[in-house]
Amino acid sequence: MDTRQLSSDGPKVSEIGFGGWAIGGGWGGTNDAESIRALNVAIDRGVNLIDTAEGYGDGHGERVIADVLKSRAEPLFVATKTPPAAGPWPPSPYCRWQDRYSAAYLRDNVNARLRNLGIDRIDLLQLHTWTRAWNDDPQPLLVLRQLRDEGKIGLIGVSTPEQDQDCVIQLMRNGLVDVVQVIFNLFNQDAAAQILPVAAETGTGVIVRVALDEGALAGKYAADHLFAEDDFRHRYFAGDRMSRTVERVDQIREDVVAFGLADDYTLADVALKFALSRPEVSTVIAGMRTVEQVEQNTRTSQLRDLPPEMLTRLRRHNWRRGVWYSGK
Fold first, then answer.
1. Domain named NADP-dependent oxidoreductase: which ranges (predicted)?
2. Could you tell me the CA-to-CA distances from 281 to 141, 204, 223, 290 in Å, in that order?
């Protein structure tokens, strides 16, 4: 597994990270024993960054990861996330940070993350969402600095709200975050405009999420595929979203065939390699809950980089779907 630097002051991390949402819940039924096997195989294959959150099964994902951490001797980098207190998600422009990320709330929540993970220090604590309404008075991030000074957390990060990812640019330029977690994939390439260049300028680490567009870019869904109602993707691909998505995935498949790469690269490989093609990206977290998924996603690191002309061709799949229907 190849590694990359996570921020100017951060460690070397595996360029494919373990995305822990599915092992916590929200993606249909989970099997903890299978999740633990998958996580151990990922570590055996060189994955050293594990990403989770309170919201992944109300801390269940963190507790599953804690079981694995106890049994492994090698150094692992664990990132988790603190959600805002109850209210709109993402926070509205009228939300006050005092109501969503107060100092007392942050301290209590970070202590809960530590207990769930069974550790004394969180390598990376990310606020799970944000609003630019707080950019000029970013007190929650200053509270995290205090917690860092107390030894409870290492790096500080923010996971971007989907509809306003650029809200973190000011935070990066002001030196308030060490890491940002962003959506960057074949359909959503907006981070290439400013977020990635500013990350290079400021030495900010970049964790890419949703590189496979919740599995769609792996090419494994048919146009009429339906998910169970307890699966997050049931809402994500509601209405005609799946059929529209599959139509565009088929166009990507045609490009892979045209460039003669279909024998060596799966669609998932191409999607992950596209995200990794940017040097500003520190790691791409792929959701994994089975050994088969681990084997598929980790193999990508050992494949040759995509040819520059292929990367240029793939840019045409940028899909400004916004809230899905603005780009229909």
1. 15-317
2. 22, 10, 31, 25
**Mean pLDDT of successive 10-residue segments in the chain (328 residues)?**
95 97 86 96 98 96 97 96 97 98 98 98 98 98 98 98 96 98 97 98 98 95 93 90 95 97 97 98 96 96 96 95 59
Give the CATH architecture of domain 3-219+266-305: Alpha-Beta Barrel (3.20)
- Give dist(CA 284, CA 18) in Å, integer: 9
Quick one: residue 59, left, alpha or beta (phi over 0 = left, psi -120 to 50 = alpha)? left
Angle among Cα 286, 24, 62 to the nearest 5 degrees reads: 95
- Predicted confidence at residue 323, as pLDDT, reads 58
Q: Enter the pTM of the model.
A: 0.96
SS3 state at 281: coil
Nearest to 297 by CA among 309, 285, 280: 285
The span from the CA of 26 to the CA of 28, in Å, is 6
